[in-house]
Amino acid sequence: MTYRTYHTYLTYLTFFRYPLPHMPAPSLDLLVSLCKRRGFIFAGSDIYGGLANTWDYGPLGVELKNKLKKEWWKTFIRSRTDMVGLDASILMNPKVWEASGHVSSFTDPLVDCKKCKQRFRGDKLLEEKLGVEAAAILKLDQVQKMLMAEKIACPHCKAVDWTEAKRFNLMFKTHQGVVEEEAALVYLRPETAQGIFVNFKNILDTMRLRLPFGVGQIGKAFRNEITPGNFTFRTREFEQMEIEYFVEPGTAEKYFDVWKDAVWNWYTGLGIAKDKLRIREHDKDELSHYSSRTIDIEYQFPWGFGELFGLANRGNFDLSQHEKFSGQELKYTDPDEPTKKFLPHVIEPSFGCDRTVLTFLLEAYTEETLPNGESRTVMKFDRRLAPVDVAILPLSKKEHLIAKAQEIYKMLLDKTDLTVDFDVTGSIGKRYRRQDEIGTPQCITVDFGTLGEDPAQGATDTVTLRDRDTLKQDRISIGDLIKAL
Ligand code: ATP
């Protein structure tokens, strides 16, 4: 299709306001393939055959992830006077993990299939059959019995022959310095939260904060998961976006609900459909050792509902443990009543960054059939998340046309913060389809009308601005372009 007929055709669609049907991502495989084809996410160490469920964000994936983190930081840190940020180290004094309970309790029940020797998380196998609540309250010595009683087959070889469950600690160990001995043992942090707790006193001493206040950080965490899988949903290296919100004892439940609403609104405000989200309250028996109340926000992934975000009332567990183990006083002094000293209680909103990126990818993925039977795949990202904000597409490769398009490109880079793509390869129809597939909200076509050489294409110094979702095309002057983006 030539540019002109494509243009007329799209205008026709817009004119009749054709309601394009929206279909959710039909399968994870389709998304994985789009991510690879279009440079969002690649298999890690690909040329060496990969490394079990490791993934690398490609040029578009890193833009998407950075924009997501920027939105998160803007909403929860920069635009609030009660929040500050932090970037703590991944390697921490091992005593941190003794104090937090991770050395003794951060374990999953590991079972082996006696026939094929593959290893699995016993609780996850049971969860599929019995539901998450029932599986979470099982004691270690009940796991094998239940697997056998429920006749749960090995996902690999289909045998029903399980070993007793063993506790498997998920923390990655490494050695610091040149000597590989026990004294030099350190862990890769399994959560970012503890970096905040150990800096609580530093932040209190330097930032003149009053309760309630929170500290947020974004960073890598590492868990030696027994069964990573489902693309970036469960990996051994991942990023978290965590907040520890410090409050006066007795007020935690109130702030718990405030955070629940704030997080729900953030996800839905950026385009996650409400009917794909649900809140799951943890049963009392299921709660972690530090928590008096936990909820998860779950998203309906192609394989079923899975945790996207967790909110926990941690009480003063962490601060009191760190006081005990470090010997340092971590109490807060009420500035209005200097004799009133206490350990604040903590509400923890904990976001998985990679799971959130995956959710936005799934949610954006749309296949549409146009009235002429042609279909297109379009990533309907919220504009704030789209990896490319605007693409400049010169209609032909003629040198003077490219030069004009480059002038516009440079103007946008100089005068805006937008991520701008410049694409000259292939027919205009193909380029529109590529931009749809990567979710670019707007395309600017520079043609011979722009140059004043073909009034039929448009007036001098005007360009065509095409909208990704409505397919509407407007002819606007270059002087009005920045306003229109
Ligand atoms: P799960 O039950 O799925 O193992 P969790 O309850 O252990 O998760 P948290 O400790 O609450 O997870 O971590 C906070 C968030 O970090 C989770 O809501 C999730 O989004 C993310 N997360 C946890 N483990 C992983 C992982 N292995 N890969 C990717 N993201 C993860």
User: Order of strands side by side in the largest beta sheet?
Assistant: 3-9-10-16-13-12-11
Summed up, the helix count is 16
**Average of the residue pLDDT scores:** 92
Bound molecules: adenosine-5'-triphosphate
Low-confidence stretches: 1-22
Distance between the termini: 27 Å
Shape: globular
Features:
binds adenosine-5'-triphosphate, alpha+beta, 25% strand, 485 residues, disordered N terminus
Structure description:
With 485 residues, this protein is of the alpha+beta class. The protein has helices spanning 3-15, 28-37, 59-78, 95-100, 102-105, 122-130, 132-136, 140-149, 193-198, 200-207, 252-269, 317-326, 353-364, 399-415, 428-438, 481-484; strands spanning 41-43, 55-57, 83-85, 107-112, 119-121, 166-169, 173-175, 185-187, 213-222, 237-247, 277-281, 293-301, 304-315, 332-333, 341-342, 345-352, 365-369, 375-379, 390-394, 420-422, 442-446, 462-467, 473-477. The strands form 7 sheets. It has a 7-stranded mixed beta sheet with strand order 3-9-10-16-13-12-11. A 5-stranded mixed beta sheet has the order 20-19-21-22-23, with helices on both faces. It has a 3-stranded antiparallel beta sheet with strand order 5-4-6. Strand 19 (390-394), helix 14 (399-415) and strand 20 (420-422) form a beta-alpha-beta unit. Helix 3 (59-78) packs across helix 13 and helix 6 crosses helix 8. The protein is globular and about 80 Å long. The chain starts with a helix and ends with a helix. Residues 1-22 have low confidence and may be disordered. Bound molecules: adenosine-5'-triphosphate. Adenosine-5'-triphosphate is lined by residues 191, 223, 225, 234-235, 238, 240, 307-310, 350, 352, 354-355.
